[in-house]
């Protein structure tokens, strides 16, 4: 289940080429059935120039495709970055003369090394900020009522979007809805126990879709503390801070692109790569 980004969309040729290079089943144009007058988190999602693509094996297949051939270490927590070394929480460290941070800006600021050269970058990060999102994955028997939408943007209430996740799967074993709370509700409920906001979100689903939606077979709750960067509020380019001895610390990601979203994060990383790989004079 995709409990964050539900589909990819964009208009940049490089981004779309990367999607096309992914050897995995795709649903062009999904979501096909869009209901509600609520505003998507990316307001330009459904403009005529944007192409939409759902990945039936899940959005993570795109990241795995981009990571192919790279030395990726999962399940590792970075405790701090100091000088030319990255220290892990198990006491080990890695030599890293060039560090690239692509985290959400809040944890990025926490990991930024304490160096005079990075004072301006730290100030910039202080101006920025992410918004949270509470997500609830709800599964129902396939005999349950089938929603007539792929994505619903409620006109009002605490939910920003309801995604009919199973409508993009080839052989779903359950009817699956992904409920995502809006910014205000997510902030209000973020510190509360999941059982509390889970009940509120299911009640709202029942109000919008019918009583069946309030009684799933099973649910899973997820807190996105740093879900996304507000659309249109980002910087225009990634930052590269050159340090003594030829070292560098670079900042990239969704917040370092004017438009944000997955496409913005991709383009930010691509621009940063070109800068880092360019010959210096």
Biggest sheet strand line-up: 3-10-11-12-9-13
Strand content: 25-35%
Q: What is the total domain count? A: 2
> Which radius of gyration do the C-alpha atoms yield?
20 Å
**How many strand elements?**
15
Distance between the termini: 48 Å
| String of helices and strands | EHEEEHEEEEHHEEEEHHEEEH
Helicity, in percent? 25-40%
Poorly predicted sequence stretches spanning 5 or more consecutive residues: none
Question: Given the C-alpha coordinates, what overall shape results?
Answer: globular
CATH topology of the largest domain: Polyamine Oxidase, Chain A, domain 2
CATH class of the largest domain: Alpha Beta
Structural class: alpha+beta
Main sheet attributes: strand count, strand direction, barrel closure:
6 strands, mixed
Q: Provide the CATH architecture of the largest domain.
A: Alpha-Beta Complex
Number of helices, where a helix is a run of at least 4 consecutive DSSP H or I residues: 7
Mean pLDDT: 93
